[in-house]
Amino acid sequence: DRYINQGEILAVTCSIFHEKNNGPNTVVWYQGAARLDYDSPRGGIALQTEKTATKTVSKVMLSNVTPRDSGKYTCRPDTGGYASVDVHVKTGDHGPSPVQMSGYNASINATQFIHFVFLLSGFTHVAIILLVLR
């Protein structure tokens, strides 16, 4: 679980490590069961994907978050697997959120791992790393 203050910018990053030139063509983002897209009615959503020979990094950013933005954020590369993080938007001014980290998550399967990083410095950034060995 990760926490962010209302009104901040949420950035969730999914890093997918793969064999050389065998990465995903697309990475789809979800909040719960709803697909996130930059032209969704919510507005304020930006998507970015960068690819190298052995790593694909996809990021979704939401501006001015509200409690409605709380939920499970999931990245799903078209090569299979997924990684998720639960985000909770706090209301009111409770001061800065602490930096939070958790590591390996064995719930995906033996060939994948997830690494979550939560940073706060003017905006909140959550990173999800998905390793796919084929």
Automatic annotation (TrEMBL):
Keywords, alphabetical: Membrane, Transmembrane, Transmembrane helix
Q: Which residues cross the membrane?
A: 113-133
Q: Which PROSITE patterns is this protein grouped with?
A: IG_LIKE
Gene3D superfamilies, per database record: Immunoglobulins
Q: Report domain Ig-like positions.
A: 1-76
Provide GO CC annotations from the record: neuron projection membrane
Pfam family for this entry, one: ig
Q: Which domain of life is it from?
A: Eukaryota
Could you give a single Gene Ontology term from the biological process aspect?
Answer: synapse organization
Protein name (Swiss-Prot/TrEMBL): Ig-like domain-containing protein
